[in-house]
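Protocol step 4 of 5: obtain the predicted structure for the target chain.
Materials: sequence only (see below). No template structures provided, no constraints applied. The aim of this step is simply to have a reference model before the mutagenesis design in step 5. Sequence pasted as it appears in the construct record:
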Amino acid sequence: MARLKPPRPLDGADDREAFDCGRDSMNQWFRRHAWRNQQLGISRTTVLCDTETGAIAGYVTLSMGQIEREFLPKAAQRNTPDTIPIFLLGQLAVDRRFQRTGVARSLLFYALKTSVLVSRQVGCFGVLTHPLDEEARGFYRRFGFEDLPHDPRRSMIVRVKDLERNGFAAD
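Step 4 output (structure tokens):
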């Protein structure tokens, strides 16, 4: 089991080039865009690092967004505005050296807890993600994410009120 430092914001000095999650698109996004997006305030990337080597074990990215009401399940559409505020869990990846050690789960829990805490100050319906494949969909489904049946991007969402009910609001 990897020994990890607590989650922290990505830093410009972090070695993003050494990160390899096994998916070229995720590696390239992390190397080319994560730091720049953070500087511009577009998204925030949080990393978990190995205590011994300092290597980045994994990262997760959060930003704000919106979804059209029509993409939500019918029951969630009632009495809501045309666009619904959401947190966007845009990226979540774990370096190959740390896969299957609980890093993905830790990063997801960090992102969900952060979303609930921020939602106390800024209204937000849920946390939305765009899984890359069926394996990722299965991972998110285990943590309460549901498919958005009418969304052409095949997004998944978990409602903030469900996260609160499941203990993510605890301090």
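Step 4 remarks: The mean pLDDT is 92. The beta strands are 8-9, 44-49, 56-68, 83-94, 126-129, 146-147, 156-159.
Proceed to step 5.
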